[in-house]
Prior knowledge:
Layout: E1 2-8, E2 13-20, E3 23-27, H1 34-42, E4 46-51, H2 63-70, E5 74-76, E6 87-88, E7 94-97, E8 100-106, E9 115-120, E10 126-132, E11 135-136, E12 139-140, H3 152-167, E13 175-178, E14 196-197, H4 198-204, H5 213-221, H6 231-240, H7 245-252, H8 258-266, E15 272-273, H9 277-281, E16 289-290, H10 297-304
Parallel strand pairs: 3-4, 4-5, 5-6, 10-13, 15-16
Antiparallel strand pairs: 1-2, 2-3, 7-8, 8-9, 9-10, 11-12, 13-14
Helix pairs in contact: 3-5
Amino acid sequence: MYIQQLYTSCLSEAAYYIESNGEAAIIDPLRDIDAYIQLAKERNATIKYIFETHFHADFVSGHLDLSKQTGAPIVYGPGAETNFTVHNAADGEVFSIGSISLEVLHTPGHTLESSCYLLKDENNRAHALFSGDTLFVGDVGRPDLSSGDMTSEELAGIMYETIQNKLLPLADDVIVYPAHGPGSSCGKSLGPNTHSTMGEEKQSNYALQPQTKEAFVKAVTEGLSAAPRYFPINAKINQQGYEAIDNVIKKGTIALSVDELKAKVKEDAIVLDTRHADEFTQGFIPGSIFIGLEGRFAEWAGNLLPFDQK
C-alpha cells in the first residue's frame, strides 16, 4: 500500500494518490493532472478510479481531464447530479484497489453530496479517512457554500448527525487526510497541519467535542467570513463540466503584438500583469490589473477579475 499527498500551497489543497499492487486511485485532483499521470507511470501503476469528495468551490477540479486521458471512471458519493457521466456510489459501497479498498461514507453537511472515503488495508482494517471538506485538522467544512435551498443552520444540523454517526465511531488511530490545510476559505480556522488522526481530532477539534446539536450549529455558523465570490461559479463548473485544459492553455498562450494588444484593450479586454511586484512598480500598462504569480495568485484572480470579460 502506498499513499502520497500532493499538496498545493497556493490553494491550500491536498490531492491524494493511493496505490496497491499496480492499481491506483486519485482523490480530488487539480486541473494540472500531469503530476498524477507521471507518478503512476513512475510506479508502473494504472489509475483505476478518480474519486471526488464533493463539488469543490475553491478550485476547478481535474476530474474530467484526468478521466479523458486515463479512461478511469469518476466517482462521487450519493446525490451528486452532474452534466457528465459519473458513478454515483451508494453509502457503504466498496471499491477495490489492488489488495486494499475504499469505502464510501456519505457525510453531508458541508454540502449535501459530500462524502468521505475510508481506506481499509490488506487485512480489511480501517487505516485512513480521506475526509474532503467534511473534516479538517482542527475544523470542519463551512456549511454556507451550498447553492441549494437549505440554510447554513440546516446544513450544520445535518453535519452534526454526520459527525455523530459517521466520524466519531471511527478508531482513534485512523489517519485523517483532508482536502485542505491552513489558509483555505473552506473552513473557519483550519489547523497548521495537513493531516491528523481521529484520536487527535476527537481530543482537540471543537466540532467533535460532546455538545448538543444547537450548540454545534451555533459554533459552526457564527463568525463565518463572507465566502469568496468565485466559489459558487467554481462549484457550478465542477458540476456541469468545462473545456479541456489543453484547449484553455492553447488559447491563453497566444503571443500578441503591441498593435494587437492595443486593439484588445479598445475592446475592453482586461490586461493582467503577473510579473514580480518590483518589476510592476517600475512601469506598467495603464489600466492593467496586477496580480503577481507568486503567492496565492488563483484566489486573488478569482476575487478580483470579472467572469464575463476576456
